[in-house]
Amino acid sequence: MQKVLTIILILISLAACQRADFHDAEGNGYRYSDLEGKWLIINYWATWCGPCIKEIPELNEISGRHPDKLNVFGVDFDGPNPEEMQASILKMGIEFPVFRFDPALELGLERPEVLPTTFVLTPGGTLHATLVGPQTEGSLLKILEAGP
After folding, report:
1. What's the predicted TM-score (pTM) here?
2. What CATH architecture is 21-146?
3. What is the rounded distance in angstroms from the CA atom of residue 68 to the CA atom of residue 134?
4. Suppose 84 and one of 49, 50, 80, 143 were both cysteines; which one would form an S-S bond, judging by CB atoms 3.0 to 4.6 Å apart?
5. 73 Cβ partners below 8 Å, 6+ apart?
6. CA-CA-CA-CA torsion for 29, 61, 120, 53, nearest 10 degrees?
7. Mean per-residue pLDDT for 77-86?
């Protein structure tokens, strides 16, 4: 029995040692491999972008209604310090995680020049669509239903 408990403790320790690939604005760590199997929607926004402000409630809706098939993450285009980023997230009413740092380079994507821009990655992690302009829950679901 003691041997089994030792093995379980070792396995728990090993799992806890796995490093996060990235962190969100609140300090939560994520691994890209844990996001595989679901669509990944990455939305670039800024507090000064009118269409972004209108789009955020739609992203909150799709994130809350479809957690079984997709993950939504945001990117604060201005990349402010942590305190400013938290204030921006609150001001925008964002309910989904926001990358602490822009993931574009790490994911092999070009940083957008127009806001809002949304990247849609397949459950396998490849870029499926780059959407420029405000999106709705319906427009995003239509893209997902078209499939890879």
Report:
1. 0.86
2. 3-Layer(aba) Sandwich (3.40)
3. 23
4. 80
5. 24, 40, 41, 42, 43, 96, 97, 98, 99, 103
6. -90
7. 95
